[in-house]
Amino acid sequence: MHAPTSGATEPVTTRFSPGLITFVLALGSFCGALMQSLVIPIQAEMPELLNTSAANASWAITATLLAAGVTMPVTGRLADMYGKKKVMAVSAGILAVGSLIAALSSTLAPFLVGRALQGVAMGYIPVAISMVREIAPREKQAGAVAAVSATMGVGGALGMPLSAWIAENYTWHTLFWVSTGLALLILTLTLVVIPHIHDEHPAHLDLVGVLGLAVGLSSFLIGISKGSGWGWADGRTLGAIIGGLLVLLAWGAYQLKHHDPLVDLRTTAKRPVLFTNLAAMLIGFGMMAQTIVVPQLLEMSEATGYGLGQSILHAGLWMAPGGLMMMAFAPVSSRLINTIGARITLSIGAVVIGCGYLVANFLTSAPWQLMVASMIVSAGVGIGYAAMPTLILDNVPEHESGSSVGVNALMRSVGTTVAGAVMAAVLTSKTVELAPGISIPSEAAFHACFIIGAGAAFAGALVALLVPRQRKDATAPAVEDAGLQAAPAH
After folding, report:
1. Band of the pLDDT at 477, cuts 50, 70, 90?
2. Could you tell me the residue range of the domain that residue 146 belongs to?
């Protein structure tokens, strides 16, 4: 294992308590994650609202996903080079600009620019997670990391009912005016509350590496996300996926030869980091099943015999307790990490997710039943999401902490993207005819999605166990040497 080496050789000094700083980091991460689900309640209306086709309107979600996927490891690398506070402030500023552009838009092109910038701003999240260890007392570090990490799921879960309520009571532009206000609040709090830590590690930014990652990853994710619509045998789908993979292979070869790479692939190939990232992808896949399947079941017409006839707002409200469960189980995850280790904690979280999907197979006849199943899945997410960055931060050099957590977040995003494509393929492959010319997913298709989600989660649990066992005292000296000491409260 690498012993972290840090430029932060002195204790952090700040006017504000570590608890308040952690709260600001969590709030910023929550707002970043909120952008993912912001347009879901109005997705069906987007073609009319922007005077475009349904296929073009779907880019409102895809643009954010692609921008976030490419940006997170790049933002993490910039934070390692120039300092975390600076990069988080810039990310919050980008979120404000992107939200403002979207709020002022009435046509597709500027709206997509705004949505892409909102995705770029999600780079705030891995940087915030990596910073927690530098400001929290050692005995509270696991809890602080758990709280900030949980916001990735909480933001997505609570974003849907919040967005639905705003969209129903106000105009759709209000969604983005609210996000603009939140972004300005986060920018202000970041500048005022977050301390400046001398954590810069000057280096040259690998611009060729940034370009290669952007092209390869965007091409691959576009192929995956659009495969169901374009057709999996369509030349555009195959060209995007295969072309993206080839570019990523070339990018990887270039990174291995570069003296100062964007992503140190030798570090990511080490067993603890590699298996943590693979588990992240599988757990991200598993988590996505409820995000896609449960809302459809809740909103489907009761005339089908298995749909529950809920409005978008009511569906979001039934799912909202799941988001609260993620945050409620963050302290549980912290306690588990401190007692049995992050490796076992991650595996337990994945098992809970899988069990939630098995329960969901038998609880689909009423909204409250799906809520219970969703809460079980969300509890597993809350446990597992906290353990992932802990494993990463324990096994990478301090000067690579931001980029390494960014890669881990990217792997989760890849898992959710692949899950979206797989679930869409399953739901469209098993259909029943509701009316002449109108086909909908069959009940068996929804159950198949639950089984696939459970399988992915259980596979993630097994992969997590492949992470090497770590002695409890293995990281303590490294933490002390790195100067990651508690900030005195003034």
Report:
1. very low
2. 18-205+262-481
